[in-house]
Amino acid sequence: MLTNNTWIIAGLGNPGRKYARTRHNIGFMVIDRLAEEYNISLTQKKFENLLGMGEIGNTKVILTKPMAYMNLSGPPIMQLIKYYKLKTDHVLVVHDDIDILFGNLKIKANGGHGGHNGLRSIIGVMGGGDFSRIRVGIGRPDTRIEVTDHVLGKFAANELKQLDSVLSCAVQAAHTIINEGITLSMNKFNRNGVGSDNL
Question: What is the pTM (predicted TM-score) of this model?
């Protein structure tokens, strides 16, 4: 039974084997880890979403991975919001961010898209950026590598060693946001950034 306090946590990525485990799909990976940690089955399909329902702490959640491509993430998420009569301030979006070093994450309460096509799509259909985000750092590429190739590329060997810790930290951040509030979460996770030394 969903309540007025239900949160939707949407991880952004691209569907299909070609994009699996790429940097751009780290939002999908966080949703998979949340599902694993809290025993939520991601088996339902609705409005181009792969989703599951359960609880994180004392809060009811819908975990979703939009199955449209990244730049079309907004409509599937918005259809869930309308169908389940959820509040946009109870939407948490998890996405990759090239402006944050790999191994770090930042929590943001609202704002613009910062050039991220998935966020641009969500803001477009919502009519604004009044939703929470977990920005998971993937870093900028070496100057010899195109940004698109970097974003859609697989993690480097040294990054794979840290990836498990990064995903665990994102799970902690999501739990804190929906159970303790965005302000406390930003104070906890954004103070020094969450670097590999802290994970």
Answer: 0.90
Can you tell me the distance from the alpha carbon of 194 to that of 139, in angstroms, rounded to the nearest whole number?
14
142 Cβ partners below 8 Å, 6+ apart?
none
Asked if residue 64 lies in contact with residue 10, where contact means CB atoms within 8 angstroms, the answer is yes
Residues with catalytic function: 24
CB 84 within 8 A of CB 2: yes
pLDDT in tens, 134-148: 999 888 877 777 888
Residue 185 lies in a domain: yes
Task: Read off the CATH number of the domain in which 139 is found.
Answer: 3.40.50.1470
CB 166 within 8 A of CB 199: yes
Alpha carbon separation from 68 to 64, 79, 119 (Å, rounded): 12, 13, 13
In three-state secondary structure terms, 176 is helix
Q: Is residue 1 in some structural domain?
A: no
How many distinct structural domains can be found in the chain? Answer: 1
The tally of CA atoms less than 13 A away on the side-chain side of residue 38 is 24
The dihedral formed by the CA atoms of 113, 76, 10 and 105, expressed in degrees to the nearest 10: -20
Residues 26-67 have pLDDT tens digits of 999 999 999 999 999 999 999 999 999 999 988 999 999 999
Q: For residue 80, give its domain range.
A: 7-189
